[in-house]
């Protein structure tokens, strides 16, 4: 019933709420302030005054998806101390992982509200790091184990690997690692072994050398073959080994000589786009629209890039996009 002792019942969790008339009445309450005076008077005759309309509207306020996502992110961060979740992570039944993925994509495209960035930064300053999110998750596992005194062989090996790769890490990554005892290669003692283990060069290394000689880098796709050898897949395996600390020092050195950024701390797709841009620009060929958009995005998001990424871009003639304030300063 909509009426009780001559008064309009406020909507609640009842089946009547789906009645078309109730839906219409709720809409009038929401629009009450913009209705004509005659319409407001007619609504008042059935008990819907301005005060009633405000009460109804307030009771029906539904959080936006953004507000729901932020609330779940706040809850997760309070429980776990970070937002380094996988894309499939659910929290309290909410698809938090996919929601955060969209926020990162929107931030990359410059389509996210500054207030939301501020709110997420307050929950986790590295919720959207310029390095791979998988690294961030590995860091949190190592930090948790370090804090609790439960470091396993896997986590110790990961920390040693970061120390070995120290110079290629983002300064913020180095800052995160310092409390874990990783401050560079010199900080990690070399473990003595009764029997020195020799690592074979592997059949992939000659093919990597041939490709790098021809193209000047090793930023290949997974499907790349060199003289019939699946070089792309082989390099994927070497990167995985390097990141888990299972790649021999000899092979790591050989690959680094061929391409200092064969295993960059930033997303590998970025490295491929960079080399595509560099190759076309050096040849004086026009850039495809997608690659041109990529280049403009790098100049707009310059401050979020790794310093070495900035150095690579500068070398091919790309520079940070001036802000409005900076442009005004140059003009004046």
From TrEMBL:
The name this protein goes by in its record: Helicase-associated domain-containing protein
All residue ranges annotated as the Helicase-associated domain in the record: 69-124, 203-259
Superkingdom, natural source: Bacteria
PANTHER family, alphabetized: HELICASE-ASSOCIATED, HELICASE-ASSOCIATED DOMAIN-CONTAINING PROTEIN
Pfam families the UniProt entry points to: HA (PF03457)
Record InterPro entries: Helicase_assoc (IPR005114)
């Amino acid at each position: 019933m909509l009426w009780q002792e001559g008064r309009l019942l406020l909507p609640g969790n009842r089946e009547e709420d789906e009645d078309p008339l109730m839906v219409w009445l709720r809409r009038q309450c929401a629009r009450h302030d913009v209705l004509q005076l005659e319409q407001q008077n007619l609504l008042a005759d059935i008990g819907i005054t301005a005060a009633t309309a405000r009460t109804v509207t307030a009771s029906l306020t539904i959080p936006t998806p953004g507000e729901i996502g932020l609330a779940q992110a706040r809850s997760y961060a309070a429980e776990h101390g970070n937002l380094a979740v996988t894309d499939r992570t659910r929290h309290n039944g909410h698809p938090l992982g996919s929601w955060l993925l969209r926020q990162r994509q929107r931030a990359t495209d410059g389509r996210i509200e500054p207030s939301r960035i501020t709110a997420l930064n307050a929950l986790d300053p590295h919720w959207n790091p310029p390095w791979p999110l998988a690294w961030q998750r590995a860091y949190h596992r190592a930090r948790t184990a370090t804090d609790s005194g439960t470091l396993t062989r896997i986590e110790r090996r990961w920390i040693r690997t970061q120390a070995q790769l120290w110079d290629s890490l983002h300064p913020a990554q180095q800052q995160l690692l310092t409390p874990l005892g990783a401050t560079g290669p010199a900080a990690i003692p070399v473990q003595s072994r009764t029997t020195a283990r020799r690592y074979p060069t592997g059949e992939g290394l000659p093919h990597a050398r041939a490709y790098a000689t021809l193209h000047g880098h090793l930023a290949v796709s997974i499907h790349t073959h060199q003289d019939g050898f699946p070089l792309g897949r082989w390099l994927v395996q070497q990167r995985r080994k390097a990141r888990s600390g299972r790649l021999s020092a000899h092979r790591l050195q050989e690959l680094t000589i061929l391409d200092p950024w064969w295993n960059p701390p930033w997303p590998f797709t970025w490295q491929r786009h960079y080399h595509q841009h560099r190759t076309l620009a050096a040849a004086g060929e026009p850039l495809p629209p997608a690659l041109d958009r990529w280049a403009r995005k790098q100049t707009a998001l310059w401050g979020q890039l790794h310093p070495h990424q900035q150095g690579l871009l500068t070398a091919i003639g790309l520079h940070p996009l001036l802000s409005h304030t900076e442009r005004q300063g140059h003009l004046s």
